[in-house]
Amino acid sequence: MLLPGRFGRARILPSSLKLRDPSSPSFGHGREKGSEAVSPVVIVWSCPLPVDAYAAAGRGVEFPRPDCPACGGPMTLWSGYRRHVRVAGRCQKIFVPRLRCAPCRASHALLPAFVLAWRLDVADVVGAVIGQVAGGACGVRPAAARAGVPYTTARGWVRRFRCRALELGAGFAALAVELGGDTVSPVADAGGFALGAIGAAFGAAASLPGWLAAGAWRFASSVSGGRLIASPGRRGTP
Ligand SMILES: [Zn+2]
Asked: What pTM value is reported for the model?
């Protein structure tokens, strides 16, 4: 099962979570207040494929066709673009389709959950670094070395995660409760709180088919609409 829902640009709305078909995308982003229907949003779907397989399949991936996150209308595949992802130090090009809604004419990028919006490195790599550093296992430098990414890149991830930690912690903690998982209370260390909440939400979701294999960080990418560590107000092709 997928756990669709939505993290707003400024706050998390776990109460909007619903259980849906596993092939449907998880969290899209609603229209911003005051924006018109043409404002694109990012939709993240729970792609079960390994990155290599997804990259090799190109346009041949069986993409889901979710309803429009803006108006609920039916959407069709409509163009797309290629972007890079980096796995184990190697860059690969992947195809990201765009879906277009006939009723409101908005188009939305459909990202696979192994990707984080606007980040080159895959969610698992970013998450591993964040998990080690925010979890207190080590500093940024050794975590970056282990992940094979530049120190400054890893430092940027951790900083952004810490900036959002309270917000993420609250959102994932609420989601965990909603899914019947453990209760996670805020602790002095916001990063630790966020990690604990992501773990609790994933633990609850992992009992549902499809999520265990995806892993915690693809889950976190899905739930956050790819914006797990996105900068506020970030726009453009994800
Ligand atoms: Zn629409």
From this structure: 0.83
